[in-house]
C-alpha cells in the first residue's frame, strides 16, 4: 500500500495536543487535516486526590494500572512522591501509554502483547486472579468512563484504590468551526477516538441539517465498542472503520486503509464512479 494520502481531507477530533502528531503524519503524506477537538481534558475537581500516595503507603502497593496517557500525565503531575510511584510495576492498555510510562522513569512496564484497551489489558498474566488476589492495586483513571477494569479487578480479589486524576469535558468552542466546515468543505473522513468525543461531536451540531451531514460522513474509530456507539446513531449506510489502536500509528494505518478504498471509489481523476458517464 502506498503511503501517500493526496487529496484526502481528514477531520481529527482529538484534544489538540494529542492531535498534532497525527495531523503532521497525514499532511506529510499529502493529505489535508482540519483540527476540531471534541474533547477537553481537565484536572480533577480535588487537586489533593492523591495525597494518600506518600512513600510509606506506596511500599505496600503491588502494581499501578493507568487507563490512558492522560492518566499517566495527571497522576505524575499530582502525586506527592512521583519517584516512589515510578518504582512500582506499571500496566498500560496500549503502546502509547506504555511508552510514556517508560519516558517518565517507570522501569517495569507491562502492556498487552496483542490488542489494546481494557479487555486486552485484563488478559495480561500479571493481572490474573492468582497474581492480584489480596494485592493492593492502584487504578489511575478519569472521572466517568467505563467500569470494566475496576469491576473485574475487584472480582479477581484485588484491594483496589480507584483514583480519578482527570476529567473529560466538552470544549467550550468549536461549534462555529464545525458548522462552517460541514457547510463549505466537508471532510472525507472523521477520526473519533472515544465515546465521549463522539457524543460531544454530534452535540456540537446544533442545526439538524448539519447533524445529518455529519452522520453521513465516513468515520474512523479505535475500537469495536466506539464503532457500536457510532452505528447506533449514524445513517444506515455510513461507513465506520476500526483502526488497529487509539495510538497515532494505529490511527494512521486506519486512515491509509480507508484511503485505498477512497481512491478506488474516486478514481485517478477524483471522479466518483457514480459520476462517470
What this model shows, in words?
It is a single chain. The chain has 277 residues and is an alpha/beta fold. Helices cover 40% and strands 17% of the residues. The chain folds into 2 domains: 9-39 and 172-266, Rossmann fold (3-Layer(aba) Sandwich), CATH 3.40.50; 42-169, Rossmann fold, CATH 3.40.50. The chain has 13 helices and 11 strands. It has a 6-stranded mixed sheet. It has a 5-stranded parallel sheet with strand order 2-1-9-10-11, with helices on both faces. Helix 1 (16-28) crosses helix 13 and helix 3 (69-78) runs parallel beside helix 5. It is elongated.
Give the gist of this structure.
The protein is an alpha/beta fold and 277 residues long. It has helices at residues 16-28, 55-58, 69-78, 82-85, 95-103, 118-121, 129-132, 148-155, 175-184, 195-203, 208-216, 224-231, 248-266, and strands spanning 9-12, 32-35, 40-42, 63-66, 90-91, 109-110, 136-142, 159-169, 189-191, 219-221, 240-242.
